[in-house]
Design a protein that fits this description.
Rossmann fold; two-stranded parallel sheet; 11 helices; about 20% strand; globular
């Protein structure tokens, strides 16, 4: 590949302004599963004091590089965990985030109605390595990854162990559970069918509803939705049904149905060799997580060369990585150090 060229801009931030840019890499990029991309774009963001230790933060497949917005506290895909005064404190660390290849945001991804090659978590790890090279950063103090971001963190630690000091993985393992693959497969079939009918955005909303029924715990649903259904326009509507199909533009906005397919498949293709990862790791598991069961995280911890498993309890299930600020604060107080 030829040398990358950057286009950058600044956004307003209380204190230190975040810096955003797009790294443009001309030429061909050979992907882990055999596909190829040309003229790749990687959109990134740096937030926090410039002299602070550098930490990379990565969220799930519905997330982009805008993890939090200081000027708009209710916005940002990881706003309860990342930001000034949050468990991953942007006043203490310089935080790097980026848009995944094939996903939501401004990095290279599929066109509407187009095909996109299969993307691996190793490919996302390679993207992070190229960003670090571009930013002239030899290493990061730590990578903190939730869900898909935790998978990418593991891939990076296997492939680039000398470039990261520690990992915090939340709701992530070294390979997907077959039940999670089953749910994801149903979602992808829904989206593909909807795209074929010219109704891709509606298919994405259905896939999101299926996802919401797996991200959270049965205990939460029992507590939140005990009421009886109401008769509306000649049919019964259940409270949990209203929740699953409520408008949620924040999560769906900016994510093409084709991008969802790319990253959903990447989730299920994820495999790393945990026995080759010796980076100090805090592996966080929620006991109520249906997608990444506690046993899978315990197994990851046993296979890693230098790990401690932290078990938390959360009615939010898999979404504990988004919502359990105080429990994660205690863990992040000693990690990344």
């Amino acid at each position: 590949m030829s040398d990358p060229v950057e286009k950058s801009s600044s956004a307003e931030h209380a204190g230190t302004p975040p810096t955003e840019g797009v790294l443009e890499i001309s030429g061909e990029w050979a992907l882990h599963h055999g596909g190829k991309l040309r003229d790749v774009r990687l959109a990134w963001r740096l937030s926090g004091p410039p002299a602070a230790p550098l930490v990379c933060a990565m969220g799930g497949v519905w997330c982009d590089r805008r993890l939090y917005e200081p000027a708009a506290p209710q916005q940002g895909c990881w706003r309860e965990i990342v930001g000034p005064g949050r468990p991953l404190d942007a006043d203490r660390y310089r935080i790097l985030s980026f848009d995944y290849l094939g996903g939501k945001g401004d990095s290279t991804g599929p066109a509407a109605g187009g095909e996109f090659p299969s993307v691996s978590t190793y490919d996302q790890a390679d993207a992070l390595a190229r960003l670090l090279d571009h930013l002239r950063q030899r290493e990061v103090r730590a990578i903190v990854g939730g869900s898909y971001g935790g998978m990418v963190a593991l891939a990076f630690a296997e492939r680039y162990p000398e470039r990261v000091g520690a990992l915090v993985t939340i709701s992530a393992a070294d390979l997907p559970h077959p039940m999670a693959v089953a749910w994801h497969s149903i979602q992808r079939h829904i989206v593909r069918f909807a795209i074929g009918c010219g109704r891709g955005s509606e298919g994405l909303q259905l896939a999101r509803a299926v996802g919401m029924s797996t991200y959270r715990s049965s205990e939460e649903f029992a507590a939140r939705f005990p009421a009886l259904p109401r008769l509306e326009n000649g049919r019964f509507v259940f409270p949990v049904e209203q929740y699953l199909f409520a408008d949620n533009p924040e999560w769906v906005a900016g994510l093409k149905p084709e991008a969802f397919l790319a990253l959903s498949e990447s989730l299920d293709l994820h495999r790393v060799d945990a026995a080759r990862i010796f980076v100090p790791t805090a592996a966080v598991a929620a006991r109520e997580d249906q997608l990444v069961p506690l046993a899978d995280v315990r197994g990851l911890g046993a296979r890693l060369g230098n790990a401690r498993v932290h078990e938390i309890s959360s009615i939010y299930g898999h979404d504990a990585y988004l919502r359990e600020a105080e429990q994660l604060r205690k863990i992040l107080a000693s990690w990344p150090g």
